[in-house]
Prior knowledge:
The protein is α/β, with parallel strands linked by helices. It has one domain: TIM Barrel. It has an 8-stranded parallel beta sheet. Strand 2, helix 2 and strand 3 form a beta-alpha-beta unit. Helix 11 packs across helix 12. The protein is globular and about 50 Å long.
Amino acid sequence: MKNINSNTNWTGVFPAVTTQYNEDYSVNIPATQKMLDELINDGIHGIIALGTVGENYSLSAEEKRDVLAASKEVIAGRVPLLSGVAENTTELACEYARDCEKIGIDGLMVLPGLIYKSNERETINHFQKIARSTQLPNMIYNNPVSYGVDTNIEMMKVLANEENIVSIKESTTSTFRITDLFNEFGEDRFQIFCGVDNIAYESLLLGAHGWISGLTNVFPKESVDIYNLIQQGENQKALEIYRWLTPLLHLDTIPTLVQCIKLAEQEVGRGHERIRAPRLTLIGEERALVLRLIKQALANRPAL
């Protein structure tokens, strides 16, 4: 299968960034831009805006466009900027994809339609229609654990015919799916990203081109070091950092992951924990756990 990814160099560590809010829970554009600038200065390789962690489906249509325009402005071409596409209907997703192209971002991370759990034929149609609605490169976000739809290998065989579907964020939690994808499509057809923080090291060793991470928002330099060290063959050094970070990485796999990540950001001075309902900021034992893990991580932070 031919290599069609030569103009889409998506590799490395791409934080799925949060959206920052003012005290009245309106979107805080300056704070969001500041956060992005700091992440880029810390060496991350790309940005995923308005994904699950970015609370895509908690923002209005106008707010989403404003966040993307502001993100593009501050990133200024330094790294690729992708947006999550998380709409309830295929037509709305196509409309959003066209608007992303007008804004001038670099690509789309496309979810299946939300609320309704589509079957295989419907899921394929959804991804096809979005890909055909835009010239932007598409990343399929496969997260059956959270969204109840598994875009499996047989479905990807069909979607491989769409030339601008160039990447997969694989979040099945099963590392064997990465190997299955490489065995079926080779090294060049899709750029494959690990989408589950606590199997990132294993996925990168299996050949994943990158890692889309929530906790990278909190410790970006260490996350980038894990990736870079593996690329350099320094697997043991990468493993030491990964083991240090893993207690926090487990937070990426629970229903309150967005609240956990935002609280952790706040504790290290990288953002605020404000979050839109129905999500609420953490209390009680869950809050205490996150604070304890952050304190432990800071006390034992490895020298880079």
